[in-house]
Amino acid sequence: MSGSGAPGPGAAPCRFAHYFVLCGIDAESGLEPDELAGENFDQSPLRRTFKSKVLAHYPQNIEWNPFDQDAVNMLCMPKGLSFRTQADNRDPQLHSFIITREDGSRTYGFVLTFYEEVTSKQICTAMQTLYQMHNAEQYSSVCASSSCSMDSLASSIDEGDATSLAKLQRYNSYDISRDTLYVSKCICLITPLPFMQACKKFLIQLYKAVTSQQPPPLPLESYIHNILYEVPLPPPGRSLKFYGVYEPIICQRPGPNELPLSDYPLREVFELLGLENLVQVFTCVLLEMQILLYSQDYQRLMTVAEGITTLLFPFQWQHVYVPILPASLLHFLDAPVPYLMGLQSKEGTDRSKLELPQEANLCFVDIDNHFIELPEEFPQFPNKLEFIQEISEVLLQFGIPPEGNLHCSDSATKLKNLVLSDLVNDKKNGNIPSNALNMYELLKGNETIARLQALAKRTGVTMEKITTPLTEKEKDGKLSCEELELRDYKLNVQLREVFANRFTQMFADYEAFVIQAAPDMESWLTNREQMQNFDKASFLSDQPEPYLPFLSHFIETQMFATFIDNKIISQWEEKDPFLRVFDSRIEKIKLYNVRAPALRTSNYQKCSTLKEAAQSIEQRLMKIDHTAIHPHLLDMKIGQGKYEQGFFPKLQSDVLATGPTNNNRWASRSTTTQRRKDRLRQHSEHIGLDNDLREKYMQEARSLGKNLRQPKLSDLSPAVIAQTNWKFVEGLLKECRMKTKRMLVEKMGHEAVELGHGEANITGLEENTLIASLCDLLERIWSHGLQVKQKENPERGQRNKGKSALWSHLLQYQEREEKQEHSAESPVAVGTERRKSDTGITLPTLRVSLIQDMRHVQNMSEIKTDVGRARAWIRLSLEKKLLSQHLKQLLSNQALAKKLYKRYAFLRCEEEREQFLYHLLSLNAVDYFCFTSVFTTIMIPYRSVIIPIKKLSNAITTSNPWICVSGELGDTGVMQIPKNHLEMTFECQNLGKLTTVQIGHDNSGLLAKWLVDCVMVRNEITGHTYKFPCGRWLGKGVDDGSLERILIGELVSSTSDEELGKQCRTPPQQKSPTVARRLSITSLTGRNTKPNAGQIQEGIGEAVNNIVKHFHKPEKERGSLTILLCGENGLVAALEQVFHHGFKSARIFHKNVFIWDFIEKAVAYFETSDQIGDNEEALLLQRSSCKTFCHYVNAINTAPRNIGKDGKFQILVCLGTRDHLLSQWIPLLAECPPITRMYEENALLRDRMTVNSLIRVLQTLQDFNIILEGSLIKGVDV
Questions:
Q1: pLDDT in tens, 1146-1182
Q2: How far apart are CA 132 and CA 135, in angstroms?
Q3: Using CA of residue 1140, residue 1141, residue 1147, residue 1153, what is the dihedral sign?
Q4: Tell me, what's the pLDDT at 793?
Q5: What is the CA radius of gyration of the chain?
Q6: In the prediction, which pLDDT does 925 show?
Q7: For the chain: N or C, fewer Cβ within 10 A?
């Protein structure tokens, strides 16, 4: 009885139905108001709900599926009893429900609710008394009276009566002498598998037997006994015929290699939601958001929930699943877990009045109004447009408009279509008789249909198909019920095939990425929590770019984790049925199109198995495989089984309590299979671990990362509710621990490699997914146990769907703090972020303030909703390494927390809250740029400070200094620094991570020469501070004569992280070494120890290797190429070392000699001499290389920039790397005559072998498209 319809362990659930149940009014206890249903007493008594009761169920109990009386009663009559008079509509209603047990197994219930005349004088009198009291109350207050007439007006309109005023007045009363009172009663079948159509027909025939004028052929007990004990489940791949009261009923079950059983008509789901909405909701379900379905009709809730979860194949929904949430369980809506629940809307209530504790991550589906509200920021399903197009084609072939059609899908329509011609008049739901329903004609003028018609023509689908099935048959009369049903079955299976095919294509290679680390099941189960079971990074790097936003979120879900767990377990156990079918499909497509597993394309491949799937169902339904025993007379007491029209008889319980003693073949067959199973089980017990222990491990392994699976419907005592909430709290804490651990491990490297991650670099995409799921977790924690609906944010004016519990809490905290700030001095914590340098010039302290960070977010006009603001604030706090500290400060206001949260809320469980903040604190060990990299268009204030070396130079220059700051997202342009100032603030669009600073001056005034130690720049929102080391002079006639320099930045870590690094067991991320910026070897001779030849060659190899690695990462994950070229251990520095080796750098006549002097001498030689080559071809090549070399050097020399000689060498190396010319220039320089004058004999450039190996190393960069940052080559025109 698990979700896949496989029999449960140790059971013999081979019966078609497990229980027959009768619910209704208990004549002895009379009218008991149902407080749990939350109805108010202002309503007229006929509108109130009263407690229902299970009147009888047969058999009493089944060992493998114990009867849960409370749950069944609650789900059979979710609103309790309802009363009607002869003036009201009393059509029977059919709905179904599902009970999911804690272990995830499911049982289905199918319910027919009808109205029976109340014969008890006592109850009629009680109703009249209630009315007299109600009317007395109404008349005592004029105001209330008007609202009451409104109430009755609404109700009567709802009943679909064209009422006159007189009728209205009469409607609001019940007069025992004049009116007949009716009360609801229901009959229900509980089955292990969802055979909806068959159960519906059986119940309708039973109901017809009760209401018809002729008594049924046999007593009703015969039919109920037959379906409970003598009708087996059809075997997989077979069909079965059994008998109702009047006509035979057929059901079928898919074979072992087909999609699992689903009997709910998808036609209805598509008509109710429309295709576009359905795909969006389906995507939300796949990403495990909170889904709330909303409708007046229970059957619609069930049909949509079952329809959508059916389409998830091969995945299965792993969280809370309650398609019909009884009124008494409304507190479950604040469950801080993903859920799929259905809520019945009360007549005439507006969605805006619905108070939901959490809406940040909610997908709200208003079924009756064809309307959905989606969470913010969720990715689209891959190939969404082509996917919708393919489904449209299937729908159109069956005459269903893709935009849906609200009126034609109603459970009541179905009842009419079947056998109840006497039940047709349900005007309330806008039903049209089915012969008026040629959908295509209805929608001929519709523009979507026209578009799809054109599309269909292109794809070769003929539109005639749409009209023929309906029109031809209509000549002879309506489509027969069997044909309608067959069409529904065929449509169901074809739509499901299209959805399953998408997953088969998307995950065709999933097996290659499953990590099978454990040698046996026992060790796998015990270490499940620590183990990685799927190589996510490699899988994503193998996917087409457009799929990534969706897939990166999807592979983090519980349903995907369970799917992979099932795959790993299948090494030791029988395969999960869903997995078996899915794997066989993948095998099939691999046979048909042999493609290299690594080559992924985003080309859309349509489903090719639609015909076969429809045919196999049709064959089963046309050719019946099995027929059950006919209903027959039972050994009943004489005089019982009396028939009274319109009343369901009191059944004889002794004949229904037990089945026949093993007189049918299927029962004995099941016992032999049971014996075989028992033998197998004993065998496995001898082999492996003790089975109980193993089952416990399995449950734990499967529930990893999940919180509470299912609410218990039966026991609603405060203790149980408290325990449930406690489970939520524990689950949230566990989830927080796992998420923070994962974020750390992925980011930190060293540990990640040990856990088999491969390279220790988290991809930007994966990081973004993890941070988004952290935002979602915080939002769920802040929604748990929320006391009241959050206050409307006055700033927003109109209602905003993006409500956020966290942001609401922050706003109320801000309001209180700001009031206090006005009355006293601000109680803001000040951080220790003072940046000092040798000179004592500092960046002023950036104060740490939760409120200030909120204001930054509030000033971002790009963010329109509260959920967006909360997420931006979380990202900002995480980037500033203040998330834990800010949240601790927020929660330190206990009075506010008490006001906002119920006692059981997570945020009021002190110990758990402390642990939660501690887990968040661990995230401070790594650097995130999750705010800077996401909000790329916002304006950000920056502050810069220039720090000179005062000992050797004047602090302030008399010339006019300027600065230009560049980052990964852009630059500021040249900004003049105010005279006599070393510090300035400026605002510009987000520059991203800062990479370079250009600094210079115009050399005017007496004290123009300036020795700059470094430049510091800070992002005033995120607090990130960058240091740009210089250590060189700016000025003519000093150092290399440069008036401007390009400085390469490095992020400075705050003192607080260093302290944390000491506390943390994990080492903090490696920073670039903060050695003072290398001074030119020639400018300060003898300061640095010179590296030897071996170290220099190693340095070149490392610099080139880093660039190669850079290009092997996915584009979005690459860091700054500028640092790899010009940074501390970059290519320019490495080549500088090569050129300095053996350079005759002694001062000639007290004048420094630079590499650039050698370059210029070489150019002068190339321009004046004719080279001699061995052959013509080599000569031509050499000439063109010389020509380009001279051209580049002259372009750098004539550029309108005041760059010094070392700066020019840097530009030359950068351009040579970009245009792949370095490997051609090095041999020219190594062989030109000036080298002998300017280099020692032992110089690396004069050693042929070294030069050849250098050329080979540089040639490895030829394959890459190197794009230089604009600041490096500004003004150089080559």
A1: 555 556 778 888 898 899 888 887 655 556 777 777 8
A2: 5
A3: negative
A4: 45
A5: 39
A6: 80
A7: C
Which residue type is seen at 615?
Q
Cα–Cα distances in angstroms (integers) from residue 531 to residues 514, 740, 754, in the given order: 12, 16, 11
The region of weakest confidence among 28-42, 204-218, 484-498 is 28-42
Question: Average pLDDT of 437-450?
Answer: 48
Task: Quote the CA–CA distance of 522 and 689 in Å, as a whole number.
Answer: 7
Do strands 1050-1052 and 1025-1034 pair parallel, antiparallel, or not at all (unpaired)? antiparallel
CB-based contact 108:96 (threshold 8 Å): yes
CA separation for the pair 279, 882 (Å, rounded): 39
Vertex 1213: Cα angle to 1207 and 1215 (nearest 5): 100
Predicted local distance difference test score (pLDDT) of residue 843 = 78
Q: In what order do the strands lie in the sheet with 339-344?
A: 320-322, 339-344, 290-295, 362-366, 371-373
Q: What span, in angstroms and rounded, lies between the C-alpha atoms of 916 and 740?
A: 10
- DSSP E strands: which ranges in 415-480? none
The answer on pLDDT for 323 being more than 80 is yes
CATH architecture of 1091-1277: Up-down Bundle (1.20)
Dihedral sign computed on CA atoms, order 292, 294, 298, 304: negative
CB-based contact 936:969 (threshold 8 Å): yes
Is pLDDT at 1201 greater than 70 in this prediction? yes
Q: Read off the pLDDT of residues 332-373 as tens digits, 9 standing for 90 and up.
A: 777 778 889 998 887 666 666 677 766 777 889 999 888 888
Contacts of 696 (CB under 8 A, 6+ apart): none
- Which one, of 325, 288, 335, 327, lies nearest residue 308 by Cα? 288
Q: Distance between CA atoms of 396 and 678, rounded to whole angstroms?
A: 50
Looking at residue 577, its pLDDT comes to: 86
Candidates 3.30.160.340, 1.20.58.900, 1.10.443.10, 2.60.120.430; CATH matching 723-750+763-783+848-855+864-935 = 1.20.58.900
Residues contacting residue 1137 through CB under 8 Å, at least 6 positions apart: 1091, 1096, 1099, 1100
Alpha-carbon gap, residue 413 to 418, rounded angstroms: 9
* Cα 194 to Cα 306: distance, rounded to the nearest angstrom: 10
| 3 state SS for 1066-1122 | CCCCCCCCCCCCCCCCCCCCCCCCCCCHHHHHHHHHHHHHHHHHHHHCCHHHCCCHH
Q: Beta strands 19-24 and 181-191: pairing type?
A: antiparallel
Distance CA 525, CA 531 (A): 10
Query: How many other β-carbons are positioned within 10 Å of the β-carbon of residue 1032?
Result: 25
Domains 233-406+479-627 and 723-750+763-783+848-855+864-935 agree in fold: no
| Number of residues in the chain | 1278
560: amino acid identity, one letter: F
Fold assignment, 19-136+175-230: Beta-Lactamase (3.30.450)
Helix (H, G, I), strand (E, B) or coil at 925: helix
E strands in 831-958: 939-948
Q: What are the structure tokens assigned to 117, written together?
A: 């005349």
Q: Do you find a cis peptide bond into 382, omega within 30 degrees of 0? A: no
Domain at 937-1055: CATH code: 2.60.60.20
The pLDDT tens digits of the residues spanning 155-182 come to 444 444 434 434 444 555 777 778 888 8
- Please name every residue paired with 1032 in a beta bridge, in sequence order, or none if there are none: 1012
Name the H helices within 1114-1170.
1121-1126, 1131-1140, 1155-1168
Cα gap 844→667, rounded to integer Å: 85
| Domain 233-406+479-627, architecture per CATH | 3-Layer(aba) Sandwich (3.40)
Q: How many helices (H) and strands (E) does the chain have?
A: 44, 24
Any idea which residue has 């490096």 for tokens? 1272
